[in-house]
Amino acid sequence: xxxxVRLLDxxxxxxxxxxxxxxxxxxxxxxxRIADQIESEKxxxxxxxxxxxxxxxxxxxxxxEQVWFEFAISxxxxxxxxxxxxxxxxxxxxxxxxxxxxxxxxxxxxxxxxTVRDAGFAEKMxxxxxxxxxxxxxxxxxxxxxxxxxxxxxxxxxTNFKIVVNFLELLHICDLRLCTRAQWEFRQVASQMRAQxxxxxxxxxxxxxxxxxxxxxxxxxESVEDWQKCPIxxxxxxxxxxxxxxxxxRKGEVAPLAEADFKIIEEIGSSVVTPALNAPKxxxxxxxxxxxxxxxxxxxPPSTRDEG
Length: 308
Known about the structure:
The protein is of the alpha+beta class. It has helices spanning 14-25, 31-39, 45-57, 78-84, 114-118, 122-141, 146-149, 167-177, 184-200, 202-205, 224-229, 239-250, 259-267, 293-296; strands at 4-10, 68-77, 91-95, 158-166. The protein folds into three domains: 4-95 and 158-218, Gyrase A, domain 2; 104-152, no CATH class; 220-264, no CATH class. It has a four-stranded antiparallel β-sheet. Helix 1 crosses helix 2 (31-39) and helix 1 crosses helix 3 (45-57). The two termini are 49 Å apart.
């Protein structure tokens, strides 16, 4: 049975939800007023996307929890499901039960890995599953509850999921499971989840990458040997290279700070950079009156990672 992932539903407008959450954190305006600006199109879609991207660059991730996606997943093995349910924060699962769903005539769908087929063991594996199915049916017909007969069912048996996952957790899942070292079945599921979102929200899908991606960590933290074997490894530095750079700093092998640099540091009065009081303010667009210009123009967020 082939793996199939379908996006069933999602936050009504993930871009709007993310912008509202971020802007609420960085604006003196109420969220109601921000929502009104979006509704009246005084804040454009592109402005929202640009603002979201800048916030993501700072590492402010909590608003991502407010965007959710609902998926149907079928044709995956129990070997996969044991890995999948280890992701338990920001995700909700419903899985096909082997306790309440008995296999008719002892026949159950299963997955045979390509490596098993390539090694010439597929036929033997299929015969073993047929024998297990016959014994399963025999036990059920004799009165053994399905919840006990299922002890025969192998990890290869297929199962189905219906899940809801928030965007932050989805990014975390794909950080790990899009890595070329992840188990092949999980990589296929994660890839299909990404592809489904990309069809509707390519602006968000670009952030769904393995952890070494340019929109994620940007480096590999697996072993050097695995990094060298990775087919895309050379596109990203290994963490060892970053440590070597840090070591160069520690040893003083980089240019030291000059007194002029310290003078700049001393003259900055706040960790939150604000415009000078006497700096000229940009003129509002012609369609805005002087009484509304301050409210309607998007505010520039502080250039700090401090979310509080």
